[in-house]
Amino acid sequence: MRAMINADPQELAKFGDLAHHWWDTESEFKPLHQINPLRLDWISSYCPLAGKQVLDVGCGGGILTDSMARRGAKALGIDLATKALKVAQLHAMEAGTEGVDYREIAVEALAMERPASFDVVTCMEMLEHVPDPASVVQACADLVKPGGWVFLSTLNRNAKSFLQAIVGAEYVLKMLPAGTHEYARFLRPSELAQFCRNAGLDLQASRGLGYNPIHQRYSLSADTSVNYMLACRKPS
């Protein structure tokens, strides 16, 4: 009997249809391009990436994967969206990015194939799009080496995040296509932290991502009420 894949076909199709826009910095993916330097520097502040084996789970078109490779990591990006992965591979070839590779494989399957293989595992803006986020967190924990780091990001579940991330971003400011997010799948930091503890990870830090609509700029903040990131470490 074939194992069930922890993915939503509608979500995969949605991002597959947008695949050709991944590297257009003025497209629907503009927010990802804007926050990428912030999250990259935040990750690097805990674990300098040069020479590290890095896995990017739910890599999409490879925006973060590519940038980690450019910091000197040997980076693998995985996703189940075929079109997005082809865009990522094409961009790496055109840009001449070294030390980056992509595979179409579920994170749970890779965890069985290559346990404890990576110094750093990232899973950004993906958990709110899968049926079982706890399973993804467990697989990330299984994939990272003892002493290694796991970095996660998602959206908080509260009235403020509903107004800002869905009503504001998708329908008022039109920063994202309508229907990009489903509010019921948002995760409170306490819920995600529990997933991490259950997976054997130690929570080290949290950080919020704020957006100023007047200056159209993102910034790191202590406010985790909408977008937030967690840094976790696997005990040595």
TrEMBL record:
It comes from the Bacteria. Keywords: Methyltransferase, S-adenosyl-L-methionine, Transferase, Ubiquinone biosynthesis. It is an enzyme of class 2 (transferase). S-adenosyl-L-methionine binds at residues 39, 58, 79, 124. It catalyses: a 3-(all-trans-polyprenyl)benzene-1,2-diol + S-adenosyl-L-methionine = a 2-methoxy-6-(all-trans-polyprenyl)phenol + S-adenosyl-L-homocysteine + H(+); a 3-demethylubiquinol + S-adenosyl-L-methionine = a ubiquinol + S-adenosyl-L-homocysteine + H(+). O-methyltransferase that catalyzes the 2 O-methylation steps in the ubiquinone biosynthetic pathway. Belongs to the methyltransferase superfamily. UbiG/COQ3 family. This is Ubiquinone biosynthesis O-methyltransferase. The lineage of its organism: Bacteria, Pseudomonadati, Pseudomonadota, Betaproteobacteria, Burkholderiales.
